Amino acid sequence: MTRSAFWQGYRDCTPFIAVVIPFSLLFGVVARDAGLDILQVMAMSVLVIAGASQFTALALLQEHAPVFIALTAALAVNLRMALYSAALVPHVGHAKLGVRALMAYLMVDQAYAVAVKTYEERPGMSREERVAYYFGVMALICPFWYGCTLLGALIGTAIPASLHLDFAAPVCFIAITAPLLRSLPHMLAAAVSVVCAILFAGFPAGLGLIAAALVAMLVGAQAELALRRRAARRASGGSA
Q1: Dihedral sign of CA atoms 80, 138, 123, 126 in order
Q2: Alpha-carbon span 128 to 130, nearest angstrom
Q3: Residue partners of 33: CB distance under 8 A and separation at least 6
Q4: What secondary structure, in 3-state letters, does 156-177 show?
Q5: Residue 66 burial (CB count, 10 A)
Q6: Which end of the chain is more exposed for a tag (fewer CB within 10 A), N or C?
Q7: 109-141 pLDDT, tens per residue?
Q8: Does 188 lie in the same domain as 170?
Q9: Is pLDDT larger for residue 170 or for residue 226?
Q10: What is the dihedral angle through the alpha carbons of 42, 47, 49, 52, rounded to the nearest 10 degrees?
């Protein structure tokens, strides 16, 4: 059963390869253009394995920002992974420490989105199947992320600018987010996050994104509580 769950996760993540490939290619190209050698590009990609954070750090380093500022901004952008991890605890928190550490390292937006959606739709999955499913998802993404980053670093500026590979980032996040917007609180949180991200764009070190996320979560949580209170009032009124 665990083998079946692993391969199911592998198959379920297949659509995201269409955006992982250009996204990782783009990072390899941009990193080389910024002056990093191939070893530095691959070390960054393998150790961080978080596209948005990598691009943030790279952009700040290109602007000659202090390394501390670049690292802080990258960490701020990547703090969403802490939220992802917290959401996954009820599903895979039973795993051994070493397994959880590996899962944390492999955590990317695609893995979270696909895994959580499946866990919610299939509550009958065993503990072992949930862990196997997660690793199946990442078994497809990681090789493409590493390999295409290396390819982008090797071919560098040989990729024509007319290809506009930068489309991959927004498409990837839209593909991840859209299937998860299944209720009014979800949609409110998404809308508020967009508005606040624009309003807070001037915040330093990527803190605008964190502030926008916190406001959106607060709005979504309050909307969820309001709907539950309304449902409770209707239930009590109906029973009376």
Answers
A1: negative
A2: 5
A3: 156, 157
A4: HHHCCHHHCHHHHHHHHHHHHH
A5: 10
A6: C
A7: 878 888 888 888 888 888 899 999 999 988 888
A8: no
A9: 226
A10: -90
Q: Which amino acid makes up residue 42?
A: M
- Does an H or E element contain 71, and which? helix 67-77
> How far is it, in rounded angstroms, from Cα 129 to Cα 123?
11
pTM: 0.65
User: Measured between alpha carbons, how far is 151 from 37 in angstroms, rounded to an integer?
Assistant: 13
Segment 101-116, tens digit of pLDDT: 898 888 888 788 888 8
Asked if 214 contacts 76 with a C-beta cutoff of 8 angstroms, the reply is no
**112 and 200, same domain (yes or no):** no
Give residue-wise pLDDT tens across range 64-90: 767 777 777 777 777 778 878 888 888
Range of the domain at 205: 182-240
Both 192 and 159 in a single domain? no
